[in-house]
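Now for a concrete sample entry.
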Amino acid sequence: RTSVSRFVISARMAAVKYAGDFGTDTNFTLLEISPELAKEIESGTELAFAGGENDTMMLCTDSSTYSVKVATTSNTLYITDAQTCADTPLTVSHDDLISVLGASSSVLEVSPAAPKLERMEELLRVAPFSGLIERDEATVSGITWDTLISEVQASPAEIKAALHDMNAFEFEGRWQVMDELYAADKLTLILTSAIAEGWSLDHLDVTTVTASLDGHDCPGIVVSTLLRQYGHLVEDPESQGAGVQGSEISTAEGGRGCTTYALDSDRICRFEAIKLLRETARWPLDAFMETWKNVIPKNMNADFAQLQGVALACETGAAGSEKEVVYYSASDLPVDQRKRLAALFKFRAEWTADEIKPYLRVVSRISVLSFLTRFAQGHCCWRADCGKHTV
C-alpha cells in the first residue's frame, strides 16, 4: 500500500512558465474522484493503494474499496504551483508567470468495487489455531492486523466484517481462525459438559463453561468464539428491565462482561451432521437421517435443508430409485470463482439454481443466473426444459 497525495487544481486561461526542473524528476499521477469519494477524503479518511505486483490495483478508504484503471487523455494536463489560476494578460513580468511543475497525459479513474478477500482467507488458513498444549514454536498461528491491512485488497472496515463472518478472533496480538478438527472437538466438549451438568442450551455462560473445561486446552476466547459461531448472545438476567444486552469478548481470558449465549438449533444440527459425514462420506438417505436424529441434543430437529453447502442428496440405483447423502462441502472448494465453478461442474454435470447457490460466493444483489453468466462461460449453459445449469 502506498499513501496518496492530493492536489486541488482549477484550470483556467493563464500565462505560465516551465519550472527549472520541468521534465526531470517531476513525475505526477492524477486521480479522478467522484463527489462521494471527495467527501470521504475531506472528512479525513485515509487513502491507500492496495495490491501486489500481479494484482489489479485497488484504492481503499477507511470503509470502501475502489477499482483503479488508467485512462489516457486527449490533451496534456499541466500541474502548476498555483491553487487557483485566474485569467492573466499575456504581457506580464516573468516573476508573475505561473510555474508548470509537470505534465501528465493520463489520469487514474476509480469506481466502487467489491473487496478482494481471497488473500485474507489464504493467510489465515496457512497456520490455523489448534490449541496451546501441542503448539509448535517454529510455526506461529494467525496473522497480525498490519499484515492483513498491507496484503488484503479491502478497506479496514470490510476486513473487520470479513473476520467476523469467518469467526476469526484475536489472540496474542494475531488474528486467528480455528483448525476445523480442533474446533469440532472443543464444541463437542462444550455440548457434552452442558448436558452432563444439566445446563440449558439456551443459557450458556462463557465463564462457567470455560471453568468446566479447565485442563482441556480450551481457553475462554475459544469458548466465546464457538458459542458465537453456533449461537447468539442473550440478555443477561441481571440486566433484564434495563435494556442491556450481552456483549462479545475478544480477549483470551474470557469471562469479562455479559457473555451468555443460546445455542442455535439449526447450527448445532448441521454441526452434528458434518461430524457424521466426515466419518463416512456417503450414506443411504434413510439411514443417515435416522442416525443424525439420534446424535443431536433433545428438543432439536434435524432437517436436510440445514445441510445446504455441506451435503447433496443424489439419486442412485436403477432409474434413480434410491437416494444417498454425499458429503460435499463448500469450504473445500477453491476460493477463486472460476476455479470453484470448474470444480462444481466436474463433480456434477447438472445443477438447479437452488442446489448450486450455497456453493457460490454470490453478492446478494446479483442473481445466480447473472453470476453464472459472468463467471461460468465455458463451463455451463442454462437448460430451460429442466430448469438446470448444465455442462
